[in-house]
Amino acid sequence: MHVDHYRLREQPFLMTPDARLFYPSAGHSRAYAHLTYGLAQREGFVIVTGEVGAGKTTLIERLCSELDPAAFVVARIATSQVEGDDLLRLVADAFHVPSDGSKASILRGLSETLRASADAGDGGGEGGRRHLLIVDEAQALPPSALEELRMLSNITDGSRALLQTLLLGQPQLRRIIASPDLDQLRQRVLASYHLGGLTRDETHAYVEHRMRAVGWDGWPSWESGALELEEDLGAGLEGGEPYRAAFGRGPRARPLQETLDDLSERLDALERLTSQRERVFSQLMSLFSEMQGRHR
Prior knowledge:
The chain is of the alpha/beta class. The protein contains twelve helices and seven strands. The protein has helices spanning 2-5, 26-41, 56-66, 84-94, 103-119, 143-152, 172-177, 183-186, 200-213, 230-233, 243-246, 254-294, and strands spanning 45-50, 72-78, 130-136, 156-157, 160-161, 163-169, 189-195.
């Protein structure tokens, strides 16, 4: 009803990501630059993280809309907590490779498909079509599944890598990748970017961008106060605390965010130290057991 009344072509703020409505904020433009740089390297992993609603999926929709289908075979999977073997079958299905049978047969089928496609057609002057795997919600993957993705990156044809992977996920993905158990995967990350929230000015520009994209011509007009949601979203907070302070926006939230970032870094360091100590303890126990066996 409002679409017709205001002479808009369609709804401007649907939840479904739409590449046509992509808004190139400073952060999203930098993230896009990281993606294009990573793709230009033709191998390895590119990682983009951000909170729910930060625009990761819309960013990828924009990227996919600009990829030449004659040069790229793109497969996308949204993961849940699947182990390595199940993820391998999901990847095979996404590339239209038979996913039944043993792990060895699936890997063989993937290798043959990637090589055949790379040797056919025009892939931008360096062989045939390139294969790009996009994994969404990657923070839900256990280390075994992430390690399986690393193993897939080993599929090559001479000096050419035949598969490149984009990992999208929430902020905890960065902590997972930092795990000592994933050192080899981390070494293959070519570019990584974290999408933050929009600034106040960018939020205003974003709303206007979305409106103009569906036909808005300035009517209805609104004052800037119509775009500030603190009063509505902050209702009911104890002591009348402003929304931006409670939910991490604005200057009052900056020290809290810096504190949280610092705590996150310390936790990562503690996790690495704990893992190292566990490995040393395990080695000492093995050595102690061997010594006991010799004295019996």
